[in-house]
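> Could you send the Acetyl-CoA C-acetyltransferase prediction when you get a chance?

Sure thing. Input:
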Amino acid sequence: MGEAYIVAASRTAGGRKGGKLKDWHPVDLAANVLNDLIDRTKADPALVEDVIMGCVGQVGEQGINVGRNAVLASRLPESVPGTSVDRQCGSSQQALQFAAQAVMSGTMDIVIAAGVESMTRVPMGLSAALPAQNGFGTYMSPGIQEQYPNIQFSQFVGAEMVAKKYGLNRDQLDEYSFQSHQRAIAATQAGAFKNEIVGIEVTDAEGNKTLHTVDEGIRFEASLEGIKGVKLLREDGSLTAASSSQICDGASGVMIVSEKGLKELGVKPLARIHHMSLLGHDPVIMLEAPLPATERALKRAGMTVDDIDLFEVNEAFASVPVAFMHSLGVSRDKINVNGGAIALGHPLGASGTKLMATLLNALEASGGKYGLQTMCEGGGMANVTIVERL
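Output:
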């Protein structure tokens, strides 16, 4: 089987709900990332054989195949097809893995994997809410309810279950959340995100045009005392809005190529895909899946935790990365070193390739060799991708 290489990675800076990216149609936001990947590689756009785009809210402005629509809004020619993937929060990580599989199989040589989510313009849960508003039912079919009686799948409940199962208290989660902001602030001030962010032109209230290049969710004034003062999401729980990921607008993408693609483009690879896997897990505790998925991935790859230089574990809720560290014995110095979704935002379908862009740049800056990316996903699933920096 052939190899798959990442030759470019790009993301927008995150926008808060109703913030700097609110006026951007998600299709055009995604198109900017596609254009940036072409610019970074100086590739002939006609050489791209497919665009696979992750998106969770595939309705309204993100409906009718947002992947193909982004191609039509970009500088890519009409001959480039596009498709859309929904694996919940792991949508664009799955897009990356689909792209790598296409390249490794020899059926394609140059593929873009990307993701987009405008949580301002397409609110979370809208695709499930619309049928109910029109008199139709819920996604919880009679068959699912028979398998899981009297249970409503909830990521909030799952996050609290993870905290309870791994013995995590509020202080631990608040301290981790504060650390996320501290790391994001330090990374921003040091220019650590500069190589991965494509500037997006925005207009302020006075009509001035600027480039949006700084993640808007970072609370530069954050304090541990302030985080500890935020109200619990439920009285008997340990999580708050401050220890949860932020609603976010954004887009991201990577270009994946074969050895033949490397020669056609004449570019040097950033990394090689070393391992890819996926695991379905308990849909009730739901967010625990990255833990067993990572254990299995490392075993399949013939590796241990100590072989991985850096980890990106999506901070959907603080309980997930903290449980990940405690359960797998991962050093705090190796995980989410530039902060995570608690500070930077979680643009759902865009987070997969967003985290990969950050992971690749962090590996380059630190001189690390292997990086592992994983995230919890609705329905109790987790993708794991291990890359080798070249």
